[in-house]
Amino acid sequence: MIVRHPDAPEWGDGQVQSRIGDRITVNFTEAGKQVLDGRRVALAIVRFDDR
Q1: In sequence order, what DSSP letters do the residues of the chain get, joined into one string?
Q2: pTM of the shown model
């Protein structure tokens, strides 16, 4: 799944790597790997790849 962080558009698009509970690990093009709290941020879905 490709996402964007609504409060950090400068991070670019990110690929979700994993989700464990409320912790979401995303690899963003401009910010690298970030671990986010899903209770505090609602990521915007850009594209859903179901490969």
Answers
A1: -EEE-TT-GGG--EEEEEEETTEEEEEETTTEEEEEETTT--PEEEE----
A2: 0.90
How long is the chain? 51
CB-based burial, 12-44: b 16+ in 10 Å, e otherwise = ebbebeeeeeeebebebeeeeebebeeeebebe
For residue 27, what are the domain limits? 2-47
Instruction: Provide the number of structural domains found in the chain.
Output: 1
pLDDT at residue 49, rounded to an integer: 75
Q: What's at 26, amino acid-wise? A: V
